[in-house]
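Co-fold these.
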Amino acid sequence: MRYGVAAFPSKKLQDLANSYRKRYDTKYAKVPPHITLKEPFDLDESEVQKVIEKIREIAKSSAPFDVSVLKFSSFYPVTNTLYMKLQENSEMRRLQEKLNEGELDFGQEHPFVPHITIGQEMDYDELSDVYGRLKMEKIEHHETIDRFSLLYQLEDGTWTAYETFLLGGTQ
Amino acid sequence: MRYGVAAFPSKKLQDLANSYRKRYDTKYAKVPPHITLKEPFDLDESEVQKVIEKIREIAKSSAPFDVSVLKFSSFYPVTNTLYMKLQENSEMRRLQEKLNEGELDFGQEHPFVPHITIGQEMDYDELSDVYGRLKMEKIEHHETIDRFSLLYQLEDGTWTAYETFLLGGTQ
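Predicted complex below.
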């Protein structure tokens, strides 16, 4: 089965992301707006429990992290993706590293660029038009993330949350 | 904010439900296939923490429950909904009661009929046609549910999982 690890930001930030996603993101209906902490990976049923135990350990020993959105950006020309760029900080970076090293190192295709996707698989013309406008817009949003989720993918490509993990014994 | 409590069945059962939902369920893209344990309710931010604490307590003191799907059914003529009917059992019933009584009693519009919706807001003609066919189909699926989730609704009607609760100290 295919799994992924992501954090869902506040309703406010998700609503803002969705106001773009519904127009520009081909995967809008597949998953709510999210911050990917671990790229999708495949696991046999026999391995799931061990991986979850490890993720629980990591969550307990990690601190909640701040999210600041100060600009829009694009992965063009690598992919025709638009995103809200998140300012990196050491708590976020360390959590992402712990979720991708040692027994959780399943190979990471992209370097970690903390972001919330708001458009993907866009035509070049639309991408440059929308990105041109977004670069002029002022955005400033701050919040603290105190949890993240392990998700799995259904046959139709949508994602279901399997378990949430509270950071740093928030519970 | 609007919240709801639901259990997500296994990927296998969700995939089966989605094979119908993608054609017959107007809310297909809003939430993965689920078993509603508490109807949507509104909460002020100030009340959320207290409600979550109560739900955590209930989860810890509740047992995992069996899910058996043996037939399709319909809520027609109350609503033009098709669903997989789940056999009720005392663990499932008791959990649903605990999530809807005392300080969690926010009013329940419908009696508890454990089910997974596979079609809703259907034309009468399509409903009777599809239901007629499904009544002839054999279905038999059994599994155990060991967790459920608190979800909240975004402005566009989609649901995000806020926290999962493991039943009976599964963790």
